[in-house]
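C-alpha cells for Disease resistance protein RGA3. Go.
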Amino acid sequence: MLSPVLEKLEIHNCPKIILLDESLQHPLKHLTIMFCENLESVGSIQGLTSLQSLFIFECPSLLEIGDLHNQRCSLKNLTVKDCDKLTCLPGGFDCLVLLNDLYIGRFSKELHSFPSLSGIEKLGNHLNSLWLKGWEHWESLPEEIKHLNTLRDLWIEGFGVRELPMWLTNMSSIREIRFYDCMELDEESILKGAPREATRVVLNGKQIRG
C-alpha cells in the first residue's frame, strides 16, 4: 500500500517484477520504472489520474503499457525508452491534452519502420519537444509528426534515413533539431533538409548551424 501523500515513485532494478497491478488507485504525480528486465506489462497507471510524468526506461521484456485515457488531463511528460519488445505506443497517448514532452523509442527491432503515430496531430497545439529513437534499418521518419505545429525541439536518433523529407524542411515551428547516430546522414544533407527556421542544428553533438 502506497502512502496517500506520496507524489513520486521510482522502481529500479527489480528483476522479479513481471506485472504491475491494474488496480492501483493513487494521486501519484511522478512514476519512473527503470531496468526491470522481466517486466512484461504496466497496467497499473489506469488509476493514476493525477500522474504528470511517466518515465519507462530499458525494460527489455515489456510488451504492453496500459491505456492513457485516464491521464488525458494530467500527463505532461511521457518517456518510453529502449523497451525493445514493444511494437506500439500505449493507447490514448493522442488524448493527452497537456503533454509537452514526448520521448519514444526504440521499439522492437523486428519492425520494418517506426510504429504508427496516427492521432499525434491532436497534440499539435501543445507538444513542444519530441525525441524519436529508431533502428538503422528504418529508412523513413514517421510523417505524422508534420502536423505538430507548436513543436520547437526535435531529436532524431539512430535512424537509417538517407535524406530528410521535404515535409520536415517545411516544419516552420522548429527552432532546434538534433541528429544522433543517423549513419546515412552527413552535414551537407542535414543542412539541406533541416527546417529553414531552425536556429540551431546539431549532428552528433557538433553544432552545424546557429
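The mean pLDDT is 92.
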